TrEMBL record:
<dbReference type="InterPro" id="IPR033730">
    <property type="entry name" value="ProRS_core_prok"/>
</dbReference>
<feature type="domain" description="Aminoacyl-transfer RNA synthetases class-II family profile">
    <location>
        <begin position="46"/>
        <end position="467"/>
    </location>
</feature>
<keyword id="KW-0648">Protein biosynthesis</keyword>
<dbReference type="InterPro" id="IPR004154">
    <property type="entry name" value="Anticodon-bd"/>
</dbReference>
<keyword id="KW-0547">Nucleotide-binding</keyword>
<dbReference type="InterPro" id="IPR023717">
    <property type="entry name" value="Pro-tRNA-Synthase_IIa_type1"/>
</dbReference>
<dbReference type="GO" id="GO:0016740">
    <property type="term" value="F:transferase activity"/>
</dbReference>
<comment type="function">
    <text>Catalyzes the attachment of proline to tRNA(Pro) in a two-step reaction: proline is first activated by ATP to form Pro-AMP and then transferred to the acceptor end of tRNA(Pro). As ProRS can inadvertently accommodate and process non-cognate amino acids such as alanine and cysteine, to avoid such errors it has two additional distinct editing activities against alanine. One activity is designated as 'pretransfer' editing and involves the tRNA(Pro)-independent hydrolysis of activated Ala-AMP.</text>
</comment>
<dbReference type="GO" id="GO:0004827">
    <property type="term" value="F:proline-tRNA ligase activity"/>
</dbReference>
<dbReference type="InterPro" id="IPR050062">
    <property type="entry name" value="Pro-tRNA_synthetase"/>
</dbReference>
<dbReference type="GO" id="GO:0006433">
    <property type="term" value="P:prolyl-tRNA aminoacylation"/>
</dbReference>
<keyword id="KW-0963">Cytoplasm</keyword>
<dbReference type="InterPro" id="IPR036621">
    <property type="entry name" value="Anticodon-bd_dom_sf"/>
</dbReference>
<dbReference type="Pfam" id="PF00587">
    <property type="entry name" value="tRNA-synt_2b"/>
</dbReference>
<dbReference type="InterPro" id="IPR002314">
    <property type="entry name" value="aa-tRNA-synt_IIb"/>
</dbReference>
<comment type="subunit">
    <text>Homodimer.</text>
</comment>
<dbReference type="InterPro" id="IPR006195">
    <property type="entry name" value="aa-tRNA-synth_II"/>
</dbReference>
């Protein structure tokens, strides 16, 4: 590629909204351009990086027996209604209608779709295990799209879904993916750490790990033990319930209080919401009863089908005691989660596996979720194990004080158990002819986010320092001193020689000052730079420079291609 032809519009000034370094550098170096909030165009250099990451992911998925498919982005609402997630996924889902008023969404994830495929096509244990994956756009209308590719509304994800005969086999698949993820991020040249995770809105029972790229700009807080291998997302912390995000405000709120407080009325006034938007559930923590009041600003709350016997997920916010008191009055006895600071609001995704079909009309307008009987109608016992692990606390494994770090979640592995296969009847016949639900797992990697995370970890004041494996090109040849015909000629010869050797090389053939060329090369982040200049050339040499260390050496012209390779 010739820099004179490369479509690489660099920028001097970046918009103020670009807060993190990866976002700034990707804009400045001409990797991306914004189309709308959280939606980007990937320019040639940017796309090459994504393709590199995808290829690494693909190779490692294939190595573990994964088979690539491509699932539709536009997904019918019926499938999501079946799983119960159409109602509970909330405003993060992009929804649309066709000309016949049929409802669809743009896939934020693909559990429903793939489960539908498997239930139609898999009959026998002989067809299992099955590991299917895809690499494609996902759509999530994030509340706060930001940080460029790190939190987009349209982004590229690899997701693999595993289908196994039983838990034991499912653990084999889980382990395979866990190991593959470690190889992928290692190959991408990233410093990362797998941490124990909670299971967010996807749910499931069998455990989960997140792969965190450690970087100060990371949105996730992790704790790790310096002595042993224990590491966890702070959100999860020691068998925490579902994800707990610290984020004040928002439209959804859950308040925890004891029975007898002047609950719903007070809430309704305080939040200026009609009562039917307050969904009240009787839950309990250990033996103690507590009330949860789910408040959602959007219409959907009335439509949550809590009585569909299938369970579902509700996004909850748990307010700290101070907030509860403010809302409910000082007499409200607070038995909420321990360890949550007074004024902090945390968000939790609670799984509500309902045990019976008939729960009190919670999905009708103006009905509250009353008179539900714990154990008969739902079980929420684990949910209140809320605790945030903090720096300095004793490691649950070895007792050493935990340390804290920030992390970017680049991937996550989930054991889903039979959550989706039971709801959607993805079953197979075992050796004895008995019908059993497949045991599932799902495994995601953010391709676009990984590219951004790589920059967060590898940059300096001059620009990006790509790990070689995911660099858009490996080497740039920079001829300096246009007057010397031999410079241009040698540079061209090297260029063609390297191309012939399969090296991904760029030549800066622009009529620019050396300083400009060097600056741009550093900004774009080519791992190696070969400078062809009159002085060294007179000795039959060129200068080879490593972007990462800045180290330069003079190398005979005849040897440089070999060295670059
Ligand atoms: P987060 O906690 O950051 O919102 P998530 O847990 O919702 O991410 P998953 O459902 O686990 O994300 O999706 C798998 C992977 O997809 C994530 O590990 C991440 O790398 C990527 N990903 C998720 N949301 C986004 C997004 N909005 N923009 C870019 N990548 C994303
Ligand atoms: Mg998310
Ligand atoms: Mg997450
Ligand atoms: Mg995740």
């Amino acid at each position: 590629m010739r820099v004179s032809q490369l479509f690489d519009p660099t920028l001097r000034e970046v918009p103020a909204e670009a807060e993190v370094v990866s976002h700034r550098l990707m804009l400045r170096a001409g990797y991306i351009r914004k189309a709308a909030a959280g939606i980007y165009t990937h320019l040639p250099l940017g796309l090459r990086v994504l393709r590199k990451i995808e290829q690494i992911v693909r190779e490692e998925m294939d190595a573990e027996g994964g088979q690539e498919v491509l699932l539709p982005i536009v997904q019918p609402a019926e499938l999501w209604r079946e799983s119960g997630r159409w109602e509970v996924y909330g405003p993060e889902m992009f929804r649309l209608r066709d000309r016949h008023e049929r409802e669809f969404c743009l896939g934020p994830t693909h559990e429903e779709l793939i489960t539908e495929l498997i239930r139609s096509e898999v009959r026998s244990y002989k067809q299992l295990p099955l590991l299917l994956y895809q690499i494609q756009n996902k759509y999530r209308d994030e509340r706060r799209p930001r940080f460029g590719l790190m939190r987009g509304r349209e982004f590229i994800m690899k997701d693999l879904y595993s289908f196994d005969r039983d838990e034991r086999e499912a653990m084999v698949s889980y382990r395979k993916m866990y190991d593959a993820y470690a190889r992928i991020f290692r190959r991408c040249g990233l410093k990362f750490r797998p941490v124990e995770a909670d299971q967010g809105a996807i749910g499931g029972t069998g455990g989960s790990h997140e792969f965190m790229v450690l970087a100060d700009s990371g949105e996730a807080a992790v704790v790790f033990c310096p002595k042993c291998d224990y590491a966890a997302n702070v959100e999860r912390a020691e068998c925490l319930p579902r994800s707990v995000r610290t984020e004040a405000g928002g439209e959804e709120r859950i308040l925890v209080h004891t029975p007898g407080a002047k609950s719903i009325e007070a809430l309704s006034t305080f939040l200026n919401l009609p009562k039917h938007r307050l969904l009240k559930a009787l839950l309990y923590q250990g033996d103690e009863k507590v009330f949860l009041v789910l408040v959602r600003g959007d219409r959907e709350v009335n439509e949550i089908k809590l009585n569909n016997a299938l369970g579902g997920f509700i996004r909850l916010e748990l307010a700290g005691p101070e907030t509860v008191r403010r809302v409910l009055g000082a007499e409200a006895g607070f038995v909420g989660p321990v360890g949550i600071p007074d004024d902090l609001t945390v968000v939790a995704d609670l799984e509500v596996p309902l045990l019976s079909q008939t729960v009190c009309g919670a999905n009708k307008a103006d009905y509250h979720y009353l008179n539900a009987v714990p154990e008969r109608d739902f079980r929420l016992d684990k949910v209140f194990d809320l605790r945030m692990v903090e720096k300095g606390e004793a490691c649950p494994k070895c007792g050493a004080p935990l340390e804290a770090a920030r992390g970017i979640e680049v991937g996550q592995v989930f054991n889903l158990g039979t959550k989706y296969s039971k709801i959607m009847q993805a079953t197979y016949l075992d050796e004895t002819g008995e019908e059993k639900p497949c045991v599932m797992g799902c495994y995601g990697i953010g391709v676009t986010r990984t590219a951004a995370a790589a920059i967060e970890q590898n940059n300096d004041e001059n620009g990006i320092i790509w790990p070689v494996a995911i660099a858009p090109y490996h080497c740039i040849i920079v001829p300096v001193g246009a007057k010397d015909a031999q410079v241009g000629e040698t540079a061209e010869q090297l260029y063609w020689q390297m191309l012939g050797m399969g090296i991904e090389v760029v030549i800066d053939d622009r009529d620019e000052r050396p300083g400009v060329k060097f600056k741009d090369a550093d900004l774009v982040g080519y791992p190696l730079r070969v400078t062809v200049g009159s002085k060294a050339l007179a000795q039959g040499q060129v200068e080879l420079r490593a972007r990462k260390t800045g180290a330069t050496e003079l190398v005979p012209v005849a040897e440089v291609a070999q060295k670059v390779q």
